[in-house]
Design brief:
Blueprint (H helix, E strand, L loop, with lengths): L3 H8 L10 H6 L5 E2 L2 E2 L4 H18 L1 H16 L10 H8 L3 H27 L1 H11 L7 E2 L27 H12 L8 H9 L10 E5 L5 H9 L4 E6 L2 H13 L5 E4 L12 E7 L9 H12 E10 L4 E2 L6 H14 L4 H4 L4 H7 L2 E6 L18 E7 L2
Parallel strand pairs: 3-6, 4-5, 4-7, 5-6, 7-8
Antiparallel strand pairs: 1-2, 8-11, 9-11, 10-11
Helix pairs in contact: 3-4, 3-6, 4-6, 5-13, 6-8, 8-11, 9-10
The structure holds S-adenosylmethionine (SAM).
S-adenosylmethionine (SAM) binds next to α10 and β5.
């Protein structure tokens, strides 16, 4: 029988016997919690994390601003209007060899590659420990876990989005990778769930105020899901994700927090929940990573599982109104992010009309006045609108 040690060993090109044993690993692991965070196992690794996150902050702020200014100057020199969309080919030709623009792009990209490499090396050097820990948490409560390893996964869910090795569904430690890795994405703001707690607070409730059941789609490691459970402690809260390792990690983390949210490996387009079941459905930065053909299917499924008057709150940069304009530099960025960060549907996402897709799926679309510009607005488009939209299921 193939054991998990065999799987790990083969992914590292080693014989199974070459992996260290659990007792050795456990002995040097525990550095305890820092608030909501299970600390990384070595000070050295925390230093890498902090250093690479600092570079990310610089790349996303001062360096990004300099690159944008350079792009504007290049366009103006050619008589182009930087605030009007241009063709992708024109933009690539203009920008691809500019040293400043490419220093920005490469600093960002190589930093992210390095971040994944450092994390993966660490996680797989102690894989037996991390997997054993998840195994022993699988049946722990509060809150249930369901994994469906035989579930048929649409091809698009298997992409290695963000260059994350193995992607969301193809690596047993994807939840760990994503949780620690996205601290870098969120420029150091991820470890205490700051972004997600803010999003749970701004999540709109149905007009009658009744909130008994909540569903969070594409929950990854469950940070919004647990924050929703904290805001609505009496509600039954579910987080679902295509990735089994994501659901397992989310459950382990939530049960360690004594949170009570439930997690399942299920698809957003086929949730298996009954009709009219939920009062609120949320998703956070799911749609920009979903195949365009799956989007209307997911919206219809949400409409089916929401009760009349229930609200859908899909949080995403392009779900804001007024929709951010597509500038010429935005055309270049959308291409660049698809090409190098493997955000495979990014160019579709950058121009999609989400209010129209939601309306077609049966929602009444309004703006959520409580929404803040919380970082979701930076999702691959220049500028961000004033309010995130929400859909209410017709009564
Ligand atoms: C960018 S992450 C979402 C982040 C997360 N919502 C949060 O609060 O941080 C996208 C997630 O959506 C999941 N996903 C993609 N397609 C899906 C689908 N059709 N059904 C369920 N989950 C899906 C991926 O596995 C991944 O974990």
């Amino acid at each position: 029988m193939t054991t998990r040690r065999d799987i790990i060993a083969s992914s590292l090109g080693l014989a199974s016997a070459a992996l260290p044993g659990m007792s050795v690993l456990a002995a040097d692991y525990g550095r305890g919690m820092d608030g909501r965070l299970m600390r990384l196992p070595k000070l050295d690794l925390e230093s890498h994390d902090a250093f690479l996150t600092t570079i990310r902050v610089w790349a996303n702020t001062d360096l990004a601003k300099a690159a944008r200014n350079r792009a504007t100057a290049l366009m103006q020199a050619k008589g182009m209007d930087p605030f009007k969309a241009a063709t992708r080919a024109d933009m690539i030709a203009l920008m691809e060899n500019d040293p400043l623009i490419m220093t920005h792009a490469n600093t960002w990209l190589r930093n992210q590659e390095l971040m994944w490499k450092v994390l993966r090396t660490e996680l797989y050097s102690r894989a037996d420990f991390y997997l054993s820990e998840m195994e022993s948490a699988d049946k722990a409560g509060p809150g249930a876990l369901e994994v469906n390893p035989r579930m048929e996964l649409p091809a698009y869910t298997k992409e290695e989005i963000h260059m994350m090795p193995g992607g969301y569904v193809g690596d047993e430690l994807a939840g760990h990778m994503y949780h620690y890795g996205t601290n870098n994405f969120w420029m150091g703001e991820n470890y205490q769930d700051g972004v997600h707690i803010g999003l749970a607070e701004e999540t709109p409730v149905p007009q009658d105020g009744k909130v008994k059941r909540i569903l969070d789609l594409g929950c990854s490691c469950g940070q919004l899901t647990v924050a929703l459970k904290e805001r609505f402690p009496n509600a039954e809260v579910w987080g679902i994700d295509a990735g089994g390792p994501m659901a397992r990690y989310a459950h382990m983390r939530a049960s360690r927090m004594k949170n009570g949210a439930n997690f399942a490996q299920r698809l957003a387009e086929d949730t298996h929940f009954p009709d009219n079941h939920f009062d609120i459905v949320t998703s956070f930065i799911l749609f920009h990573e979903v195949h365009p053909d799956a989007e209307p299917k997911i919206m219809s499924e949400v409409n089916r599982v929401l009760r009349p008057g229930g609200v859908f709150y899909p949080i995403e940069g392009r779900m804001r109104r007024p929709a951010p304009p597509t500038s010429a530099f935005g055309v270049f960025n959308s291409w660049w992010i698809r090409r190098w960060n493997y955000e495979v549907w990014n160019e579709h996402y950058a121009v999609a009309d989400y209010p129209a897709i939601l309306t077609k799926a049966g929602f009444v679309v309004t703006d959520n006045a409580a929404s803040r510009d919380n970082g979701a607005g930076n999702n691959n488009v220049i500028g961000s609108g004033t309010a995130n939209i929400m859909g209410t299921k017709k009564a």
